[in-house]
Amino acid sequence: MSYYATWFLVLAPAGAVERHGPALRAQLAEHAAAPGTRALWRRWEREELGFDELEALASGPFGLDVEAMYAVWEDCAGLRPYGAVSARNRFPMLGLAHALGPERIRELPGWFGDLVLSPDEVRATLPAVEALFALDGAARVEAERRAEQALRSADPVGDLFDTAVPIWRAAAEGGHGLIGAQIVP
């Protein structure tokens, strides 16, 4: 069966972050602390994982309850811009994780694109996110090649590298938070 998984990055009013943040942060903390997740992350730090294992690691908790995420995003309706990056038969963050590796992907707040940030956290993390995606020349070409390899895609993967920074900047400039999740809509 074929599917499209999408990473959504949505500007969030401070009130939406206050309402939904505690539950979402608890999900992230529980997921990251799970023994199997921790063991797989430590292994990835030592050696390259197979794509199925890396995708299991990169699939965060927010996609497990799509209806709940839709309800969260209803609280964010009307704010623009937002980001959406899709991949066919793979989660998009698998491509980014394979392209950047564990040391660099650690700079992305949350868990592989599943995140909830207050306006202050958005402003504080913007420089690290800008640095994470600051790839040019040969580094950019190699990162895109690795992302395409992981996603088994002949489609361009530039959106993986070009979506987050403008959304982060818009949130910082507008005084908004961010809520991101990978889901299969």
The averaged pLDDT comes out at: 93
Which shape, going by the Cα principal axes? globular
Order of secondary-structure elements: EHHHHEHEHHHHE
Percentage of β-strand residues: 5-15%
What is the terminal-to-terminal distance? 14 Å
**What's the helix count?**
9
Total number of beta strands? 4
Major sheet: arrangement of strands: 2-1-4-3
Give helix % range.
Answer: 55-70%
SS content category: alpha+beta
Largest sheet: 4 strands, antiparallel
Q: Using only CA atoms, what is the Rg?
A: 15 Å
Return residue spans where pLDDT drops below 50 for at least 5 consecutive residues: none
Describe the structure.
- The protein is α+β, with helices and mostly antiparallel strands and 185 residues long.
- It is built from 9 helices and 4 strands, in the order E-H-H-H-H-E-H-E-H-H-H-H-E.
- It has helices at 14-33, 35-46, 51-58, 66-74, 92-105, 119-132, 137-151, 158-162, 164-174, and strands spanning 4-12, 82-88, 115-117, 177-183.
- The protein has a 4-stranded antiparallel beta sheet, with helices on both faces.
- The two termini are 14 Å apart.
- The mean pLDDT is 93.
